Amino acid sequence: MKNYCKQIYPADSENPYALSENFREACNKAMLMYSDNQDEDTLEVINDPRCDDAGKKGAFWVMCAALKRFHGEHKRLPVNGTIPDMTSTPEYYIAL
Known about the structure:
Number of strands: 0
């Protein structure tokens, strides 16, 4: 992915995106989209028999059952839910 970004906007490009700190950060972190996030602890919980009878076990097991269904359909867990910090200036941040 990093090489792909470099091909699109080489560092010596006159395109302002190629020189942007945020663009470089995005290229450096793009591979996280494709990382294998098969957390063993999470898989252990969603494979617990209580997931199969979630409606009678409480809200936690209902959420686990939903996660198990997602994993069954997509063969992966959802993204980890964190957003990496970005480089910014106060002016750019306020503009957002």
